[in-house]
Amino acid sequence: MVTTLLIPADIDRPIEIADMSSLTDYQKAVGGYIEAIGARPPAVTFVVNEEGKLRELPVNTRATVLWWYIDERFVSTDSLRGDVVLTGPPDRNGKSQRVPQDLAVSLVRANYRVELQAAGEERWHPVALAFPDMFGAMAFVVDIRLKLPSFATRIVPRD
Question: Which InterPro entries does the protein's record reference (predicted)?
Fold first, then answer.
């Protein structure tokens, strides 16, 4: 059994911790045949409906923003469709591993802020915005990276 996060495409539905023990479990979660999309770092796998685009499933904004945040190559060029299961990377035998605990906690935790660091500076500068969840903060960081590529960014919990 693998502990995963189910990220619904419907943003009104909460992210759920889901235990998957078979291919059938993954297929039920995404509503059809599956496709695994790896990303690093952190080492995670997005399990999506293989025919999500063909069937015109809704864009999964939260999963897409997380994907773009992790792997900038796909920013504004691709999206994840339908409900998405997030797991850890496959092991040496190709079997899914649990989603990294620190990532799982940060995705369900509330209240974040973003900080910027100019090239060559040691000091981090807080942005005067508060984000109720990690996904909003990640979307902001993806946009900042496009507009200010020389700045380093980080997301930190608000006190």
Answer: DUF3846 (IPR024559)
Q: CB of 82 within 8 A of CB of 57?
A: yes
Residue 128 CA to residue 126 CA, distance in Å, equals: 6
- Using DSSP, state whether 62 is helix, strand or coil: helix
Classify 150 as helix, strand or coil. Answer: coil
Q: What is the pLDDT of residues 92-150, one digit of tens each?
A: 888 889 998 888 888 888 899 999 999 999 999 999 999 999 999 999 999 999 999 99
Q: Residues spanned by CATH 3.10.20 within the chain?
A: 109-157
- What does the angle CA 76 – CA 81 – CA 85 come to, to the nearest 5 degrees? 115
Q: Which two tokens stand for residue 68?
A: 């773009």
- Name the residue among 114, 116, 118 with its Cα closest to residue 150: 118
Q: What is the pTM of this model?
A: 0.86
Structure tokens at 67: 């994907």
Second-level CATH architecture of 109-157: Roll (3.10)
